[in-house]
Write a structure and sequence with these properties.
Helix content: 25-40%
Order of helices and strands: HHHEHHEHHHEHEHEEEEE
Shape: globular
Number of domains: 2
CATH class of the largest domain: Alpha Beta
Distance between the termini: 14 Å
Mean pLDDT: 86
Number of helices: 10
CATH topology of the largest domain: Cathepsin B, Chain A
CATH superfamily of the largest domain: Cysteine proteinases
Length: 358
């Protein structure tokens, strides 16, 4: 916790600039101007579309462009939306894509009816690590700083899992391990998601996985190698040996579910892997601000909570995504902490865990 006290909200007022393309009402004024906007969008995101596909997807794109513009000009939301590389996809396409579905099973099924953890998954032998619930609960949160942002110290650059690989679980777990390793060693080392995709047989590579089983693999494998020694390919391949010093962890803990103070306490100490809902139209078109809209209907995505704070839009979690730096606020989303339901906005309070490193 002492280390976290040094990482307060100095950077919160300077969130990364949104990176979707800008447009005005003049771009929506006619079929010709909308088609020009679509061509500009295709070039910006390097989207290869043949004539037939462009004709079909143009209708989707122009409807999305109009909906986004209407949302942004209503003036009563704490977040904005923007055109991004998902803007000519149907809801069903996105929901079934590796971006929208990359956890192997609904993690909520692993909770008992009253919301308690059914078991504590951890590898530690030292009795001092045997906590009933990770994060310390509401009492520990009373000592947490009002704002924390691990970016710049314990968070590597935003990465991209790619359109064809459902590996969000690996990116979420790796970001959490990168974080605790940087905190313990004072060295921020990007680590290899591809090693998990290829070698973690308890998970399913590009067909999904879970962060907790990824942590288990890293423990049993005696570490995970740096990204440069085992580079990401966006597809599953044969597991290979990499000759590089691995980064190790000693196990992991789970955060008490449905407890915002418990998650706050955990994030105050280190980046935390979280499962979220992310298949809704509003979430995938998020551009900036404090998101409080529709996230989706299931915990199908994984990301990493790397801080929290508050501004004029209200209190929020800072969440690192794996959809590349041209989504959201430079690859991040600020999810509202003002939750009307116990699972939190986007289900962020339902299932979270973090690696332990002595």
């Amino acid at each position: 916790m002492a280390a976290a006290l040094l990482v307060v909200a100095m950077a919160l007022s300077a969130a990364p600039a949104a990176s979707s393309i800008d447009y005005t009402e003049h771009d929506l004024a006619s079929e010709a101007s909308l088609r020009a906007l679509y061509e500009r969008w295709c070039a910006h995101y390097d989207m290869a579309r043949d004539v037939g596909e462009k004709t079909r997807r143009f209708d989707l794109f122009k409807e999305n462009a109009r909906r986004i513009y209407e949302h942004n000009h209503q003036g009563n939301a704490t977040y904005t939306l923007g055109l991004n590389r998902f803007s000519d996809m149907t809801d069903e396409e996105f929901s079934l894509s590796p971006y929208g579905r990359c956890l192997t099973a609904p993690v909520v099924q692993r909770m008992s009816a009253d919301g308690e953890n059914e078991e504590l998954h951890q590898q530690e032998d030292d009795a001092s690590f045997n906590l009933t619930h990770g994060g310390g609960g509401a009492t520990a949160a009373l000592g947490a700083p009002p704002a924390v942002d691990w970016r710049g110290r314990a968070v590597t650059r935003v990465k991209d899992q790619g359109l064809s690989c459902g590996s969000c679980w690996a990116f979420s777990a790796v970001a959490a391990v990168e974080g605790i390793n940087a905190i313990r060693t004072r060295s921020l080392v990007p680590l290899s998601e591809q090693q998990l995709v290829d070698c973690d047989r308890a998970d399913h590579g590009c067909n999904g996985g879970l962060m907790t089983t990824a942590f288990d693999f890293i423990v049993s494998n005696r570490g995970i190698v740096p990204e440069g020694a085992y580079q990401y390919m966006g597809r599953q391949g044969r597991c290979r040996h990499a000759t590089a010093p691995p980064v190790t962890i000693d196990g992991y803990r789970k955060v008490q579910p449905f407890d915002a103070n418990a998650l706050m306490s955990a994030v105050a100490a280190q980046p935390v892997a979280v499962a979220i809902e992310a298949d809704a139209w509003e979430f995938r078109h998020y551009r900036g601000g404090v998101f409080s809209g529709n996230c989706g209907g299931r915990l199908g995505h994984a990301a990493t909570a790397v801080g929290y704070g508050a501004d004029a839009g209200g209190p929020f979690w800072i969440v690192k995504n794996s959809w590349g730096p041209r989504w959201g606020e430079g690859g991040y989303v600020r999810i509202s902490r003002n939750a009307p339901v116990r699972q939190g906005v986007c289900g962020i309070l339902t299932e979270s865990s973090y690696p332990v490193k002595r």
